[in-house]
Design brief:
Strand content of chain A: 5-15%
CATH superfamily of the largest domain in chain A: Winged helix-like DNA-binding domain superfamily/Winged helix DNA-binding domain
Number of helices of chain A: 6
Number of strands of chain A: 2
Structural class of chain A: mainly alpha
Distance between the termini of chain A: 38 Å
Oligomer: homodimer
Strand order of the largest sheet of chain A: 1-2
Helix content of chain A: 55-70%
Number of domains of chain A: 2
Order of helices and strands of chain A: HHHEEHHH
Largest sheet of chain A: 2 strands, antiparallel
Amino acid sequence: MDVVYQYGQATAAEVLDALPDPPSYSTVRALLRVLEDKGHVRHRRQGPRYVFRPTVPREKARRSALARVVQTFFDGSSQAAVAALIDQSSLSGADLDRLEALIDRARQEGR
Amino acid sequence: MDVVYQYGQATAAEVLDALPDPPSYSTVRALLRVLEDKGHVRHRRQGPRYVFRPTVPREKARRSALARVVQTFFDGSSQAAVAALIDQSSLSGADLDRLEALIDRARQEGR
DNA sequence: GTAGCGCTGCTAGATTTCAAGCACCTTCGG
DNA sequence: CCGAAGGTGCTTGAAATCTAGCAGCGCTAC
């Protein structure tokens, strides 16, 4: 799923290449079929091959991904998660400016 | 693993309770044994039961977790990830103050 | 047109995981 | 001390996953 989300869409071959410790091509195809059975991806034909896309839109999926990480590793504290992220990211000055602006905006809304 | 990281340490019963769509107790025990075989957890005896702890410390694990989410869902942009996190979190004024202070500090360091 | 390449559909076997059940051990209460 | 409760070790079988291999389809180049 990570690969599909990262690429936006992906073929079996792309998934295979992108996977670390790569399994066999057969396995990837079986995996994608299972993911489709479970409703996590759809495929459409593109020329001779299948292109798989997630059924849950990226934005929604990343919300849950962030929420899960916050829950699992930061005891539910988003503030702590943001802090860790800023701390480990070495952001540029421009990035920091953008974040500061965002914080100001959040302050307005929270009022 | 999520459960173990969330609790810091956990017994088989705790993992079972914490799992959504709970599998059988046997399955949880097998799972923990496999995780131990793969080196992801260790156990030590506590009274009559086993308590499992992660081998990789929480802080290190959460760094990779964050990095993975950033990579998968934000095209590697931590700035975008932080923005999304702030946006979806409805943080308190005090939290926002703390983050602003952190941003200032990051600015100092990046200079 | 047709030969070749790449990809899918399908089958089948090996391996791994899921689950249940039972014997034995550790603790706790009376 | 002794029995009960709850946990683990182990075995066994069912189910799912991993993998290989082959036939057939769809493009592409010649």
